Amino acid sequence: MRAFTIALVGAPDTGQAQLLEALNDSFKLYARPVSVLMGSPAKVAGSDLILLMGLDGLQSPAVNALDQSIRLELELAGTAYEVLYGTPQDRLAQALQVAEKRLNKSSTAPIPPQVQAELARKPWVWICDKCSDPQCEHQLLTQLLARRATAPQGLAAADGQAG
After folding, report:
1. 52, exposed or middle or buried, with CB in 10 Å at 0-12, 13-18, 19+?
2. Side-chain half-sphere CA neighbours of 108 within 13 A
3. What is the crossing angle of helices 16-26 and 88-106, to 10°?
4. Would you say residue 151 lies in a domain?
């Protein structure tokens, strides 16, 4: 069985080496072989999953320019990628969530009936394609619905027509 390849790309000092080590530790006992590597977008082309280390906070103009050039290179090559933000623990959790989803999707083994039944009982969870933060879309919708529920009738109707 071919190893599932996860590639980490990003500007210097964005935590790539730390995430690489954490992912390797996480996948040691996984049933399918997983290979995690770092490199430039050109070097990691063809990987099963590409994770871009997002910039948190204020960065120097040089780091911002490098981040933008990496994103542009990925987009010009038509390469799909996920962006990770937050603390090292946040980034690891996001990476594992995306990798699990991709690994399960690319698996050719049939899903046992017990697992299918368990998956059917679990509620559907939305994962935002743009930021890998499943809570942001939920929070925005929840806030909008709460605002509409508490707004006077005329304002709620106008709010729905504004967007």
Report:
1. buried
2. 3
3. 50
4. no
Q: With a threshold of 0.90, does the pTM exceed it?
A: no
Instruction: Tell me the residue range of the domain where 106 lies.
Output: 4-111
Strands of the sheet containing 49-53, edge to edge, are 34-38, 4-10, 49-53, 82-84
In a domain, 95, yes or no: yes
The identity of residue 84, as a single letter, is L
pLDDT at 34 over 70: yes
Residue 131 lies in a domain: no
Question: Which CATH number belongs to the domain containing residue 92 in this structure?
Answer: 3.40.50.300
Measured CA to CA in angstroms, residue 102 lies from 6, 50, 108, 132, 142 at distances of 10, 11, 12, 13, 28
Distance CA 136, CA 151 (A): 22
Q: Is the pLDDT of residue 101 over 60?
A: yes
